[in-house]
Write a structure and sequence with these properties.
This protein is of the alpha+beta class. Helices cover 46% and strands 9% of the residues. The protein binds flavin mononucleotide. Residues 11, 33-34, 36, 88, 153-157, 179, 193 line the site of flavin mononucleotide.
Length: 310
């Protein structure tokens, strides 16, 4: 039971799956859910090997596989990761954590050894595709793990501690952490969450704008219980965020809407209290700096490397 002042989670409500699926793969995909509750049971090495191999069989641009996966099993390391990633306890509880990283370092070395031109870390196109390659491989691992009765949850808060991760795992230049995955045996099978209707997400032939009321209904159906109680502290926070990003008048309108409806709605909660719209902007420059520190500089003018010794 939620206490009055507690903010409801944005993970959405649980959906009861009762449909029958034509095959096991579809059943698996429909019934999948993030697992945040792991038992003490270890994952057998041969099972893990299979899951990892399934991951590296994923599609990848040009079949280049520009990613690496750091496998983390040591309790001490998992504990530290859990603290760095916002004290999410399941990171320490899961028997295995996998850190998925874009990796142009390995291919850069290959190019150097074989005397081939190489500018991947200075190219947006390569960055863009390698980000996708990395996450597609991670998702294959999730699905393979699910199919063997394991559970997993992504941890996106690695973006709070990129530098610490680089030092902990000795990541060379050109290796950039993307996401962490906790993997283990679920204590109890997690229930699938409600998603937007397929008709909202899929557009026939071209992009169709849905009507305001349909749009509202779709989100209300997805988050029927996500009404956050008004407190003075929350009002102040939302008002401050609104003022910073859209000005005084918008802040006044937002607070007026909240007071009129008697609660903070899900989208006000998402961007006014959780992923605060102002903070999201403030860190952009810091992330560009970080990218450069990790050896990626596609947003800068390219200067070919000049070897002054020859
Ligand atoms: C890129 C990414 C980052 C995520 N980061 C976190 C996280 O830091 N902590 C967490 O508990 N769940 C995290 N999740 C899991 C989502 O919260 C979860 O997928 C979402 O609530 C939908 O629930 P479902 O996976 O059960 O369908 C992340 C998922 C993705 C794809």
């Amino acid at each position: 039971m939620m206490k009055n002042n507690e903010m409801p989670s944005h993970h959405g409500v649980e959906e009861s799956p009762d449909a029958k699926y034509p095959n096991q793969t579809l059943k698996l995909l429909f019934e999948r859910a993030s697992c945040r509750n792991f038992s003490d049971q270890k994952i057998a090495p041969d099972v893990l090997q299979l899951v990892l191999e399934a991951g590296i069989h994923a599609p990848t641009g040009g079949n280049l596989q520009p990613y690496s996966i750091i496998k983390i099993e040591k309790d001490e390391t998992k504990q530290k990761l859990s603290e760095l990633c916002g004290r999410q306890n399941y990171i320490a509880e899961a028997p295995i954590n996998l850190l998925f990283c874009i990796d142009w370092h390995r291919i850069g070395r290959w190019a150097q050894l074989e005397i081939a031109p190489f500018t991947a870390t200075s190219s947006f196109r390569h960055f863009w595709i390698s980000f996708q390659d990395t996450i597609i491989s991670a998702q294959n691992i999730c699905t393979a793990a699910d199919s063997l009765g394991l559970g997993s949850v992504y941890i996106g808060t690695v973006l709070e501690c990129f530098r610490e991760l680089r030092d902990m795992f000795q990541l060379p230049n050109g290796v950039f952490p993307v996401v962490l995955l906790c993997l283990g045996c679920p204590k109890t099978k997690p229930q699938p969450r409600k998603k937007l209707d397929v008709n909202v997400i899929v557009h026939d032939e071209k992009y169709h704008e849905i009507e305001d009321q349909n749009l509202r209904d779709s989100f209300n159906e997805k988050y029927p219980d996500l009404k956050v109680q008004i407190t003075e502290e929350r009002l102040q926070k939302i008002s401050e965020v609104c003022r910073k990003v859209h000005g005084e008048e918008f802040a006044r309108k937002c607070i007026e809407r909240i007071k009129k409806s008697g609660y903070i709605n899900p989208v006000q909660r998402y961007f006014g209290l959780h992923y605060c719209a102002d903070e999201m902007l403030e860190v952009n420059d810091e992330y560009l700096k970080l990218m450069e520190e990790f050896g990626f500089n596609w947003f800068k003018k390219y200067h070919p490397f000049e070897d002054k010794t020859t």
